[in-house]
Structure formats: C-alpha cells, structure tokens
Specification:
It contains six helices and 21 strands. The protein has 292 residues and is mainly beta. The longest helix is centred in the N-terminal third of the chain and has 10 residues. The N and C termini lie far apart (70 Å).
Length: 292
C-alpha cells in the first residue's frame, strides 16, 4: 500500500489509484464499461470493497465502469450487488474490444446523409447499395421514428473485415492494422491504403477521386473505410469505402462516387443534404444504387 507522509503525523493511505492498477482493470474490461448492458467507453474505477472501510487498492476487488454506472452504483439507482459486480468482472473480453454501438435518438424525420444528398425510405428497409455479401449498406425504419443502419465491408480477397448490424459495429478480422475509434455518437474505422485491404484497381483511381473531391484524402497512408456519425435526432452521416473485385462505392463529406474497374469514377452530388435527397417508395427491401 502506498502512503503519504505528512511530517510527524500519522501515515495516510493515498486515495489516488496507481496507474498500473487502472490499466490492468481497464484492459480486463475490454476498454469498455464492465456492465454488459452499457456501451460506454469513458471509464472510472469502482472499489467493490468500499475505500472508506478498507482504505486499499486491491485489483481483485475493483472494477472498471463508466461514470454513469459508477454514480448509479454508489447511489443505489443501479441495483448491482457485490456478486453481480464480481460476475461482470469475470467476463472474458479481448484487451481491446472489437465492437461498439451507435445510438440514434428517435425522430419523426429519418435520414442517412450520403455525400451532398440524403437517403430516406417510406418502407421498413431499403438497401442503399449491395455490391456483394460482404460489401453493402442499408437502412431500416422501426415504428416510424427509429433509424437503424447496417453495413458490411470486405477486403480485396473477399473476406469480411467489418460489419454493422442495426447500429452494432464489430471488427471481424483481429488485425491491428484495422483501427476502430469510438466516441458517443460516432464510430470510425481505417485500414492501410494498400492491398489486400483495398483492390488495386481502386487504388489506381485514388488521385482521380481526389481531383473531383478535395475532402477525399490523398496523402494519408490510411484509408478511412468507415465514418458513421449521428448529427441530429434521426439523422446519420455515413462516409467510407465499399468494394468488390470490380466495383466500389466511395462516400465522402461532399460526394457519392460509383467506381468500376476500367472506368472513370462517376460522381453523384447535389446542393446539400438538407436541400436534396432520394426517398425510396418501391418494394420492401429494394436497392437504390447499383451497376448494370
């Protein structure tokens, strides 16, 4: 136990938790709140054996939880017994979690921002595009006011590397080269700007896309394959790269590109997502964009 010296006064234990113990507990929780029903990633350390009683930092009796859960545990709003906390602590998770959840506040107006226009649907679900089993983007409307986004990304070999299932995001390949960054309301993923993460024919069109849209990164050595963000209730902006062997969709801040092997990228744009949009009124589960 560490102590604080106060002249000739009695030694007092330090309330500050050592950094090594913090790291151990956060890694144990998979860098998210140990509460399996909470997606938060900002973390604090809770003493299961109360500090006021034991005055000890014993990692066996401490757990990483988010500030909201921590506060609710202390004030009794979260009815979690010590046994429940030890059960949470015993959950086996990877050191760096491969999943996240995107919460979208309900709204009577539901839109997916894709470049300089938006996509909406009068049906329960619509595919924005479907390039292959592991390369597609779709939206679903629940009860008229809840927007859910689904997407899948593949590498040049056709392996699924990232999936979103109704706002739940998961990295499928445990590859440190594929980075996932989280904050409440936004999830981003990137990969090296090279094969096998992207097909060679798309990389050869990189500068052409950059000439048509200055918001598309040309100099970064990484490709931003997904950036999904809640911008207001019911409205989500999505950017990223979806590809198969012969076709690709590239969504930037300002543009929607349809790319194909051996062709120049075709840019779709409008006066702005608040002024232009496409609403699907066709069959349930239809597809808005595709190649012929």
């Amino acid at each position: 136990m560490r102590h604080l010296f106060l002249g000739n006064d009695t030694l007092q234990p330090q309330r500050k938790i050592p950094a090594a113990i913090k790291k151990l507990l956060i890694d144990k929780a998979g860098s998210k709140c140990a509460n399996p029903g909470c997606p938060n990633r900002r973390l604090e350390i809770h003493h299961i054996r109360a500090w006021a009683v034991y005055k000890a930092h014993d990692a066996e009796h401490m757990i990483a939880v988010c500030p909201a859960c921590h506060d609710d545990i202390h004030h009794g709003r979260l009815k979690a017994s010590d046994q429940t906390l030890y059960t949470w602590k015993g959950i086996q998770r990877p050191k760096n979690s491969d999943d996240a959840f995107l919460y979208v506040e309900p709204s009577s107006v539901l839109r997916l921002l894709t470049g300089s226009f938006h996509v909406a649907s009068e049906r329960d679900n619509v595919s924005v595009f479907n390039l292959s089993k592991f390369s597609k983007l779709s939206i679903r409307v629940l009860d008229g006011d809840i927007l859910q986004v689904s997407a899948r990304h593949q590498d040049a070999a056709g392996n699924q590397i990232l999936r979103i299932v109704e706002n739940n995001v998961r990295r499928e390949i445990h590859d440190n080269e594929i980075r996932l960054d989280f904050r409440p309301g936004r999830i981003a993923a990137s990969a090296p700007k090279r094969q096998p993460y992207l097909p060679g024919w798309l990389l050869s069109q990189w500068s052409e896309i950059g000439r048509k849209d200055s918001t598309f990164s040309q100099t970064d050595d990484r490709a931003h394959i997904l950036d999904i963000e809640v911008v207001k209730p019911g409205t989500v902006r999505v950017k990223g790269i979806w590809a198969n062997n012969d076709e690709a969709m590239v969504l930037t801040q300002e543009s929607f590109f349809m790319c194909a092997r051996g062709r120049k990228p075709m840019r779709l744009s409008g006066p702005g997502p608040d002024k232009s949009g496409i609403t699907w009124c066709g069959p349930e589960g239809g597809t808005l964009f595709g190649f012929r």
